[in-house]
Amino acid sequence: MAGEPQADCLFCKIAAGEVPATVVRETDTTIAFRDINPQAPTHVLVIPKAHHPDAAALAAEAPQVAADVLREAGEVAAQEEVAPPPGGAGGPRTGYRVIFNTGAGAGQTVFHAHAHVLGGRGLEWPPG
Ligand code: 5GP
Ligand code: ZN
Q1: Which of 18, 30, 58, 99 is deepest in the core (most CB within 10 A)?
Q2: What are the residue boundaries of the structural domains of the chain, listed by start?
Q3: In a 10 Å sphere around its CB, with 0-12 CB exposed, 13-18 middle and 19+ buried, how is residue 25 labelled?
Q4: Atom 24 of ligand 1 has which residue's CA nearest to it?
């Protein structure tokens, strides 16, 4: 059933506390922890505690939790002091990016929905 823990899923194990992670925020439905291979000074993953294979499945199966993940991505950015000032302006190192890699061809390697929150350095646009 959608949302049930998967025995072979790394992020289900992190959500259950069975694999250690550097947790920066936690709510009833989400957990945010530092990426083990950071690509920016701030690189935090926000996951639903329940198992959904990717962001589209999460949005379809548990839309309120998808909203929780997005809200928490913003809270992580604020906590890490990479959020831009109100209105979105700011210097070259303010602002952050939220990414959901979806599908192996787009770089997804862990098939439990997760938002990457990246910030603290210049972020080129369009991305490579
Ligand atoms: P994806 O490539 O699926 O979009 O993102 C998976 C992310 O999980 C990668 O950025 C990778 O560095 C991270 N990751 C993989 N294994 C671990 C782990 O055991 N702990 C943590 N904290 N991050 C992990
Ligand atoms: Zn999982």
Answers
A1: 58
A2: 10-119
A3: middle
A4: 36
